[in-house]
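Service request form, structural biology core

Requester: graduate student, group of Dr. S.
Request type: structure prediction, single chain
Budget code: on file
Notes: please return the result as structure tokens.

Sequence provided:
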Amino acid sequence: MRALTLLVLAMLAVPASSDIPVAMIEPAGDAQKYWPRWRGPSGQGHVMGTGYVDTWSDTDNVIWKVRVPGAGNSSPIVWGDFIFLATSYNGGARKAIVAFRRSDGTLLWEAFAPDAPAETPNAKNGHASGTPSTDGRRVYAYLGNHGLLAVDFSGKQVWHCSLGTFQAYHGTAGSPLLYKDRVILYQDQKGGAGSFIAAFDTATGREIWRTPRQAQVGWGTPIAIRAGDREEIIVSGMRRVTAYDPDTGRELWSAGGNLFEVIPTPVVGEGMVFCSSGRAGPTLAIRPGGSGDVTETHVAWKAAKGSPFIPSTLLHDGVLYMVNDMASIATAYDAKSGEVLWQGRLGDVARESFSSSPVVVDDKVYFTNDFGETFVLAAGREFRLLHVNRLNARTLASPALVDGRWYWRTGTELLAIGAK
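Core staff response, request fulfilled:
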């Protein structure tokens, strides 16, 4: 009886999701027309507009295809007639931002960061996995040992901030977050000493604040949310999910439950933040807006199976979609309750076979595996695989979608796909 009473009190202590509205903070203005950051303007793979083809191959519906210099898994971003991505040379000794003309794929320029010691990454990670961000004036890229680089749209360096040499397990891979007038990123490394989250001025690169972290591994990207009348920076990291004050870097709350290795970027909706970790789970549904350790009061539900190791999840119309890349199984949860709605196989079983994060377009959900196969599913509460598209190329990056065209980076090329 006492245990039941405590459970009821704990449930009452957590505000209902409708009591505190929670939303991703999205960039305003022209940024909504383009794909200015990791996972687009929404920060979670939502594509607005129509007119996107849902079938393609390495020849069908290909408008143009060009070779990408160097090597890397950075996803493309888009602003105006520009496509930007990051790349590396000489085994990671040199790193750069690369610009292409969006209309025809012409290589416009490369902007190199100052040389720095190469990292020792996992082979699948590589040396240039972080996706740049842009505010329409400058392009910002976090390049690990090569620091944080800002260039203008002609490729001229505006500023560069050296962050030191990292002892990062499997290398670095996070993408920078633009929040108001600052760039925010975090980097965890072996032993925990030197791990941090920090904010830098977008105009000058000046460090605004820095908060030490204790985590030792992690390759994720922070997100900015609004929880009620408070804004928070959320980091899903080793063992814990942590929220920070975006103005000061002060820790606001944290929740335990993550496993050791964390790659997926959190998604937001239904009054909660959804975070996945490990090689099969768990996924945590957390109500933000708390204070201190909120593990016992603000974790609304926890799912032990189906979670991704590398790709992020996708939330659409109350359904949380994910793929377990260790078993090629897609799972859909009711986002409010954590109830499993369906599971379905996506291609052959292969360990660590998905890296690209899913997108939703025209009420269809697209999952792409490392072999360039895109599984097109009808969005909804039943598993319905419509068809499979094949690029016939290694594909670890996530797509950018603007003006009816898909932009894909494969192992060696950049492609524009759309109706001809």
